[in-house]
Design brief:
Helices cover 66% and strands 0% of the residues. The chain has helices at 12-39, 44-51, 55-68. Helix 2 (44-51) crosses helix 3 (55-68).
């Protein structure tokens, strides 16, 4: 594996569960950071650039949740 050492004794189920847990944690951190950015007046393009994704991708992933949370969203 690239840069990650594993041992033969490691259970693949444990390793995969750890990956899934890290993905959930990363999503939670992203959600909080995007919400904070939008509450402080960031635009969709600013958030997208910071995350390394398109404006459309970040809008699709976060807009409904942010609206439900009462965040005032900027158009651009």
């Amino acid at each position: 594996m690239s840069g990650v050492e594993t041992t033969e004794a490691q259970d693949p189920a444990d390793a995969l569960a750890a990956v899934a847990a890290l993905r959930r944690l990363a999503d939670q951190i992203e959600d909080a950071a995007v919400e904070q950015a939008m509450r402080t007046g960031w635009s969709w393009p600013q958030v997208a650039e910071a995350l390394g994704v398109t404006r459309q991708a970040v809008h699709k992933k976060h807009a409904k949740r942010l609206i439900a949370a009462g965040v005032t969203l900027r158009r651009r």
